[in-house]
């Protein structure tokens, strides 16, 4: 079973009360959401690049899409150039 900090018990309790989720499912949802928000900009860019490449998109379209998605992250990073995006992916 996944561990969770005690400080998130109130959130888990709320999810159990307000949704059809069982406690274990609510814990997994909370941990998954926290992991999503812990993702660094670089990890997000690399993950989205892999996902979009596997969907058959070309790099030019991928860079545009990632650049458009970044400002909508929970904590938006500074605007990145296409060159910065490429360097995150390819080093």
Q: Taking all residues together, what is the mean pLDDT?
A: 89
Give the CA-CA distance, first to last residue.
36 Å
Low-confidence stretches: none
Oligomeric state of the chains?
single chain
Look at the helices and sheets and give the structural class.
mainly alpha
Structural Rg:
17 Å
Please indicate the percent range of residues in DSSP E strands (runs of 2 or more): under 5%
Q: Please estimate the helix content.
A: 55-70%
Q: How many H/I helices?
A: 5
Shape: elongated
How does this model look, in words?
There is one protein chain. With 91 residues, this protein is an all-alpha fold. It is built from 5 helices and no strands. Helix 1 (9-18) packs across helix 2 and helix 3 (41-54) crosses helix 4 (59-69). The longest helix is centred in the middle third of the chain and has 16 residues, at 23-38. The termini are far apart. The model has no long low-confidence stretch (mean pLDDT 89).
Describe what is shown at a glance.
The protein is an all-alpha fold and 91 residues long. The protein has helices spanning 9-18, 23-38, 41-54, 59-69, 82-90.
Salient structural properties:
66% helix; elongated; 0% strand; 91 residues; 5 helices
List the helices and strands and how they pair.
Layout: H1 9-18, H2 23-38, H3 41-54, H4 59-69, H5 82-90
């Amino acid at each position: 079973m996944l561990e969770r900090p005690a400080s998130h018990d109130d959130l888990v309790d709320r999810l159990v009360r307000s949704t059809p989720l069982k406690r274990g499912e609510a814990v997994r949802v909370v941990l998954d959401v926290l992991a999503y928000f812990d993702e660094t900009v670089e990890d997000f860019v690399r993950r989205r690049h892999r996902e979009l490449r596997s969907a058959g998109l070309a790099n030019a379209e991928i860079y545009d899409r990632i650049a458009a998605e970044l400002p909508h992250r929970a904590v938006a990073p500074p605007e990145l150039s296409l060159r910065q995006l490429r360097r995150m992916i390819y080093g």
